[in-house]
């Protein structure tokens, strides 16, 4: 297939592109490249691309590419970024996504894979939540995911099959590393300070999934017949991979060794607390086989941080924390308040 991957230069996208190519898909990227200075000792992914903001894409841009599918990853990718200015999250993650889907549909693209998030479940009870569970988003980020899914669903018809991949929280090595997601963060803390520092009281539940298992899930949706995925939501992750944050900390301390588990100064209960059921994706996409566990991911990160020389200064800097990098770029005048690049 010929596939447009938006956000292909981000944490998930830069690992997804090689996975798609290995399956003989032709990939064209689209990214405004907010995090061009944020590589972690790796060659950036190299793909033909449209250097565009999703808010500005036109039907002409996409029609010229003769695409079979769009994988839409580009977004402000976490809660702290959405707290910076909630309106920006609605502009990019909600309105930008709906705009992209509309132009894709008009350009004749038949399949649209949206990178949604389990965070739209927000606050769950003790039971694991399946795709029919109620939405309780607790941030603009989570709410934007709900509203995009609803808008895309209204666009579904014989010519256009949207699919909503509700990823668990990702972990694992990527050439565009993020250290602002829980597993990667705890390992970086341990590697640079000898302490595993929890920012919550450690009790919340989180579903977790490796970046490469997310890439395989998107590839499996591309392989599936349209009737199996048309207007469907899939929780993306693996049974048995729901953890309390405290358990993740214990795994990190065990793998890194000689680490004390402690609580940060602002540690408090976290309102995002949910366990997720992954039965549907395994039942429907029979070729999908997630391979990673959190323990293996922690081992991978620990080895990478040691060999790549993750220092306390690097960890404290902007390169691997999305909010800090956006703040740095804004303060330097490289982009405006609307996160569009300033004229050179
Ligand atoms: N990483 C996770 O744990 C996780 C979990 C669930 C869902 N997701 C979703 O997956 C997607 C990718 O996440 P990620 O971790 O790779 O994020 P990321 O921040 O590493 O990458 C996002 C990419 O999108 C690009 N981008 C952002 N706004 C853009 C715009 N307006 N126009 C064009 N490009 C733009 C950025 O330059 C960046 O390359 C996001 O939609 C995110 O919400 C991520």
Automatic annotation (TrEMBL):
UniProt cross-references to SUPFAM superfamilies, sorted A to Z: NAD(P)-binding Rossmann-fold domains (SSF51735)
Domain NAD-dependent epimerase/dehydratase: 3-237
UniProt xrefs under Pfam families: Epimerase
Entry-linked InterPro entries: Epimerase_deHydtase, Lipid_A_modif_metabolic_enz, NAD(P)-bd_dom_sf
CDD domains attached to this UniProt entry: SDR_e
UniProt name for this protein: NAD-dependent epimerase/dehydratase family protein
